[in-house]
Structures are given as C-alpha cells and as structure tokens.
Write a structure and sequence with these properties.
The chain is mainly alpha-helical and about 200 residues long. It has a domain of about 110 residues. It has 7 helices and 2 strands. β1 and β2 form a beta hairpin. The protein is globular, with a radius of gyration of 28 Å.
Length: about 200
C-alpha cells in the first residue's frame, strides 16, 4: 500500500510540472575531442628509448632554468645541516649524468663534468650544460634493441634499460630538490612559472 501511495504522489507532483520542463531535451553532447597528434616514427620504432628521452628533455629545460634562477650567493644554501647545498645538487647532477650516459653509450664521460660543489655558479652551470650536451646525442642514438645489453654503472651490473630509466628518474628527483630550495628562498621554480 505504501508503494502505491508513493507512486501516486510522484505522479501528482509530475502533473503539476509544466510539460516543457518534463520533456526538456537533454543537453547536447560535448563536441568530439580533437584527435591527438600522431606519435613521431621514432616513438613507435623505439617506444622505451623515445619515452625516456621525452622525459629527459623536459627535465633538462627545468634544471638549466633552475640553476640560472638561483642567485650565486644561494648556491651554498641548504635547508638543514644534513641536506646538500644547492651547489652540491648541481655538481652531483653533472657527474651522475656523465656516469649514466657513459654507461648507456659505452664511452667515457668528459672530464669537464667533474666539478666541485663549491665552484662558482658559472662553472657549475657549465658542467651541468656539458653533461646535458654529452647525454643528448647518447639518447639520440639509443634504440630499444640495445636495452637488454648488460652494462656496469656505479659498480653495479644491470641491463641498459635500467640505466635508461634511472636517468629521468634521477633528474626528476633532483629537480624537486632544486625547486624546493628555490621556493625556500622566495623564488618560483621554472616548472611553476606561467608559460610565455
């Protein structure tokens, strides 16, 4: 009996609603999303190597910009006694890039990547840029077919694929450090700045 009363109540309420509201058209469907741009041929030929390089290129822009943005007198800044200085982060990135890309390519990293964490902002910036200049062509020449090969880096043997994954992961990790140090000094990290 209660169900019948509810049905009658709903029907009575609907009778009071103007027909135009009851049978109003549903909103038109949203226009179809634009088709995404097709992937470049190298992305389909070597998807793993291409993907790592794509992430790497994003990190390069952010790290160079962060190193440029931090004032020279703040290169000795570190939030706590146990944390690295900003200069140490930059020095480490240059040297780590050299080791990882040397392992990827089977070559030797340039000596110019060995820079002290207390060097000038200009010298640290040059080493950082040189490390990216070294890694760029290495990634350009890397194919997925080479990723199962075994290489040695940091006194460990691993597949080349692991080294390729470590490169953008390491850069993202250290960029987050750089971004935090910039924020703590009242500066906006490059990745958070409005696009020009």
């Amino acid at each position: 009996m209660r169900v019948s009363m509810r049905v009658l109540s709903v029907a009575a309420a609907m009778a009071l609603i103007p027909g135009s509201m009851l049978w109003a058209q549903a909103p038109a469907p949203a226009p179809a999303q634009a088709q995404a741009a097709p992937l470049p041929p190298e992305a389909t030929a070597n998807p793993v190597a291409w993907s790592a390089k794509y992430l790497y290129q994003r990190d390069v822009k952010n790290m160079i910009a962060a190193a440029d943005e931090m004032p020279e007198d703040k290169y000795s800044y570190h939030p706590t006694p146990d944390q690295w200085t900003f200069g140490k982060v930059v020095s480490h990135i240059a040297q780590s890039n050299g080791a990882l890309c040397a392992a990827l390519s089977g070559t030797t990293a340039p000596a110019s990547l060995q820079v002290s964490d207390t060097a000038s902002k200009a010298d640290l910036g040059k080493a950082l840029q040189a490390s990216f200049d070294f890694c760029g062509p290495v990634l350009d020449g890397l194919t997925d077919a080479k990723l199962a090969d075994t290489v040695t880096v940091f006194h460990r043997t691993m597949p080349r694929a692991m080294v390729l994954v470590l490169l953008p992961v390491d850069l993202a990790d250290h960029y987050s450090q750089m971004a935090a140090y910039l924020r703590l000094n009242g500066l906006t990290p490059p990745s958070a700045q409005p696009r020009k």
